[in-house]
Amino acid sequence: MRRPAAPQEGSRRSQQGILRAGFAVLEGGGVDALTVAAVAERAGVAVGSIYRHFGDKEGLLYAIQHAFTDMLRAEIAERVSAERLRTFPDPADEVAEAVGAIVDAFRTHEHLLGVFLLLGTRHEAVKTLGSRVSVEGNHRFVEALGHISIAHSDRAAALDFAYRLVYAAVAHRATQGEFLESDRPLPWTELRKQLQAAVIAYLLGAPEGH
């Protein structure tokens, strides 16, 4: 599917209202609850208005995902940049902030991320966009921490693995919840703390082979 064309100013507010309604419907009931009628009712617009702007349910879903991922990109970019991380007093604080930014974004948007991550397992267009945004996040993470001294000879590989570790943990939490693999409580706040500690130890700890 192609991304919908940018709206004219006259319809921009209407489209934004429809997309916000789509967010709410997906968060409340998941993808099965997303119907053109449900979104129209939530947005307070005619069903025909949604078809006119987005074509059909699939076009609406794809537009919602694009709007959501754009928002997610902006939130993470605001916190994860080399310029901002350099303002922290030591490398451990920089790593902790970069990890915390990813965890916080997933926690804030847990329900919508869970919907799109699961939907991507059976919807190729959703998976393709989700993968592209995730890889962009990886590149941002690696670039933002690229100036710190780490205990690995292959800096890029180590930073890539650190990102994968964090991403895997929070994506798993968003899709499967807290207790799939253990009956021991691990709330988001503790998951964040432990991931920060693990990545700091991995990147800044003893050199490989020690």
Could you describe the 3D structure shown?
The chain is mainly α and 210 residues long. It contains ten helices and no strands. Helix 1 (9-29) packs across helix 2, helix 3 (47-54) crosses helix 4 and helix 4 packs antiparallel against helix 6. The longest helix has 23 residues, at 57-79. The model has no long low-confidence stretch (mean pLDDT 92).
Total strand segments: 0
Per DSSP, what share of the residues sits in E-state strands of 2 or more residues? Answer: under 5%
Cα distance, first to last residue? 49 Å
Shape: elongated
Helix content: over 70%
- Characterize the biggest β-sheet: none
What's the rounded overall pLDDT mean? 92
N to C succession of SSEs = HHHHHHHHHH
Helix/strand class: mainly alpha
Low-confidence stretches: none
Rg estimate, integer Å: 19 Å
Short description:
The protein is an all-alpha fold and 210 residues long.
Please give the structural blueprint.
Layout: H1 9-29, H2 36-43, H3 47-54, H4 57-79, H5 82-85, H6 91-108, H7 110-119, H8 124-144, H9 155-176, H10 188-204
Helix pairs in contact: 1-2, 1-4, 2-3, 3-4, 4-6, 4-8, 6-9, 6-10, 7-9, 8-9, 9-10
Give the tags.
210 residues, mainly alpha, single chain, 72% helix, 10 helices
